[in-house]
Amino acid sequence: MAHAIRFHETGGPEVLRWESVEVGDPGPGEVRVRHEAVGLNFADTYFRTGLYPAPLPAGMGVEAAGVVEAVGAGVTDFREGDRVTYTGSPLGAYSTERVMPAEHLIKLPDSIPFETAAAMTMRGLTTSYLLRRIWPLQEGDTVLLHAAAGGVGLIFSQWAKLLGVRVIGTVSNEQKAEVARAHGCDEVILYTKEDVAQRVRELTDGKGVPVVYDSIGATTYETSLNSVARRGLLVCFGTASGPIPPIDAMQLAVKGSVYVTRPALADYIADPAEKAALAGELFDHVGSGRITIGINQRYALDEAEKAHRDLESGISVGSSVLAV
């Protein structure tokens, strides 16, 4: 019997339930995947709390890696036994197996373990589009990255190093600062002790940075704006502390004619060719060892409630996975 984490009402981690489920056979355009590992992402908590609406009852999670067990009619890109990973809707990744649209799958090279794939597919593809699509970064550029010891942060700093980009990262404590430095972050600011925008200006001869990458949202928005150089870009790609405030167009002019964007991964992997290109570059870096994926928290799939509590408490460092 297959099992899954589901929720029947929105709320705290306690609403997550471990349930027996019927999976069935894949229909046209679908596959059945047996999961080997499931990714844990902060965005999962948004569905659980209702910030991101979902019809109830609902499954949980959007990222996992495993093996194709069956394919439905019309599926030509995958076959039984293929190693795959994925990220994206529909919800339901917190499960031992599931039926899902084949179009969401990405073939996983033998060089990358399932657990590594589950820990990095969303974070890695996010990093890929942030560094390769959002802004024409040049060797020698300096950027500001919030949550530098998070799952995206640790991949981002390593990849930026390969591109010759200097990263100023923010973290909450010295332990996380050490982790960020070990993964290539050039300068680390403890936002609990320092004025981030002031420190950024000091590190950039008063200019600020051409790009700020902000996954925190509400509590960092003002600081991020104050750190952007004239005609630079603020990339708000997450809202861990809550949604960003309404944007005042005149404020953007006052801050130096700066730009603000709120990108979503789905729009950068919607085109199959672009998704393949972003995934291919990511897999090449990870498979060759140029980028390492640290998994610092591991939970059994039926421990999802504890995993969510740890994630929201801020004690998690880097990536977390749920073992199936």
UniProtKB/TrEMBL annotation:
Entry keyword NADP: yes
The protein, known as: Quinone oxidoreductase
UniProt keyword annotations, A-Z: NADP, Oxidoreductase
Domain Enoyl reductase (ER): from-to ranges: 11-322
The organism's place on the tree of life at top rank: Bacteria
UniProt KW Lipoprotein keyword: no
Lineage of producing organism: Bacteria, Bacillati, Actinomycetota, Actinomycetes, Mycobacteriales
Gene3D superfamilies for this protein: Medium-chain alcohol dehydrogenases, catalytic domain, NAD(P)-binding Rossmann-like Domain
Organism of this sequence: Rhodococcus olei
